[in-house]
Amino acid sequence: MANQINKVAVLGSGVMGSAIAAHLANAGIPSYLLDIVPKELTADETAKGLTLASPTVRNRIVNAGLDSAKKARPAAFYSSSFASLVTVGNFDDNLGWVKDVDWIVEVVVERLDIKQALLKKVDAIRKAGTIVSSNTSGIPIASIKEGLSEDFRKHFLGTHFFNPPRYMRLLEIIPTAETLPEVVQAMSEFGERMLGKGIVYCKDRPNFIANRVGVFAMMAAMRAMLEGNYTIEEVDQMTGPATGKPKSATFRTGDIVGIDTLVHVANNLYDAVPDDEMRATFVVPDFIKKMVENKMLGDKTKQGFYKKGDRHLQGQAREGDGHLAKSILTLDYNTLQYRERQKGKFASIEAGKNIESLPERLKMLTYANDRAGEFIWKTTSAILLYAANRIPEISDDIVNVDKAMRWGFNWQLGPFEMWDAIGVEE
Questions:
Q1: CB-based contact 210:200 (threshold 8 Å)
Q2: pLDDT tens sequence across 37-96
Q3: What local confidence, expressed as pLDDT, does residue 137 receive?
Q4: Neighbours of 99 (CB within 10 A)
Q5: How many other β-carbons are positioned within 10 Å of the β-carbon of residue 82?
Q6: What pTM, to 2 d.p., does this model score?
Q7: Less crowded by CB within 10 Å, the N or C end of the chain?
Q8: 104, 126 in Cβ contact below 8 A?
């Protein structure tokens, strides 16, 4: 393989950057993990007599990122001993290390000016022929490379991992018009053979393939919920395993990802796709805007669409003080108050439990004559049409779209496979 990748520089030690470094270590690939130098001392550092020139202070941010990866659950490292393959440093003192690597992956904050400023410094240091990529999910790849050298531009592309990288199979590869074919091939082979990824080729369009279709699906479900007066639990019943989606369904996924992140992506998409025929779907509902204002952001703030609460025990083994146990509470989006979870009662969903074949079950649910059938038809048909209308905007073929949704969102069937199951003519 040309452009053999034996060592990597990961620029940015946040959740994604540190997790990419960990996954490289799992594959036996050593990496440099770099981040910014702090501008202020913490109270603890001041008490210890440290200064901004102290090495431990200068690497505080990157060390915190690596520590988070070591403690991550599910585990980012296959074995804690693999962390020794990650060497930490900072942009001010150690950026010169990029001269020694075969691939540089930028994973800093989602701001074009910050990415460009950092990569301009990288361009002046890297050896010719070194592959450089950005892990951005929302900034056009072509805009990031503007003003950089010809050799840099020829060896630059997007490599969009899904979190957590050790477990999510999808790796979206986004070449630009200037990216050399051999660079695309090298990254694809490395991602597949060394990192165990499923490779999907994307066009340089907003949010590429998986997030473009996946966020549309989530927002379409929310709109259908409000229009049909369904509850949050009912939506998750209908958009989870019953229809071939993961247990986290729609709203639990939102809590895991972070509701502020979901809002950010939806707003970015709305701004970036003025000609999208379904652009209005990306308008964030008012109740979600209020949730963000109230710091109800999901798992990171311990309350989102769901939260853990206490319930009184009756006639059961008692925990804690003998009176309370933990239960999962659900948000009432009309009042923004939490209440006991209430499972929806849908005859079609219950009947579907007896149908082992997902294509047969999906077809039955889509045409069911109850409230579940109405919701599933409305949202599924919207997703299928939306995916079809994105060809050739985001991909030249339907195969990449189906792979992206299976590998990136853990759908058992991609949109076009769902279409076949339901019946194209029908």
A1: yes
A2: 999 999 999 999 999 999 999 999 999 999 999 999 999 999 999 999 999 999 999 999
A3: 84
A4: 11
A5: 18
A6: 0.91
A7: C
A8: yes
